[in-house]
Amino acid sequence: MSPSSGSNLYGNLDLLVLRTLQVEGSAHGLGVLDAIQRHSAGGIEVEDGALYRSLHRLEDRGLLSAEWRTSDKNRRAKFYSLNRAGRKELAEARKEWERHTRAVGRVLGLDWDGAS
């Protein structure tokens, strides 16, 4: 998912970007940023620079397609969309995320698996 592992900051942000593009469809960087904040009810704030590094990292890895278009504010913007490789990566990363969060939940005594 990321340069070193799926559980670090890069991997988490990359996962959020992939999922956001799956839900929102094609979007430019600020659109992705707004959607992450909206879907997290303001609970996740991402810095512009971190977001653009994530988008470039995902594009370099071949997980996103990108094209230059005119935004709704009549500005030239790069629009990103999830491609087949990105959808496959997202599915695998979501499974790993679920496995990891359930394991952490068990350690913390959260009742996600019916255990306490």
- How many DSSP helices? 4
As a percent range, the share of helical residues equals 55-70%
CA(first)-CA(last) distance: 31 Å
Q: How much is the radius of gyration in Å?
A: 15 Å
Mean pLDDT metric = 89
The CATH class is identified as Mainly Alpha
Number of domains: 1
* Count of β-strands: 3
Instruction: Give the CATH superfamily.
Output: Winged helix-like DNA-binding domain superfamily/Winged helix DNA-binding domain
Per the principal axes of the C-alpha atoms, what is the gross shape?
globular
Briefly note the structural class of the backbone: alpha+beta
Element order: H for helix, E for strand? HEHHEEH
CATH fold title: Arc Repressor Mutant, subunit A
Major β-sheet strand ordering: 1-3-2
> The biggest beta sheet, please?
3 strands, antiparallel
Unreliable residue runs: 1-7
CATH architecture label? Orthogonal Bundle
As a percent range, the share of strand residues is 5-15%
Please explain how this structure is put together.
By secondary structure, the chain is an alpha+beta fold. It has a single domain, classed as Arc Repressor Mutant, subunit A (Orthogonal Bundle). Helices cover 56% and strands 14% of the residues. The chain contains 4 helices and 3 strands. It has helices at residues 9-24, 29-39, 48-60, 84-108; strands at residues 27-28, 64-70, 76-82. A 3-stranded antiparallel β-sheet has the order 1-3-2. Strand 2 and strand 3 (76-82) form a beta hairpin. The protein is globular, with a radius of gyration of 15 Å.
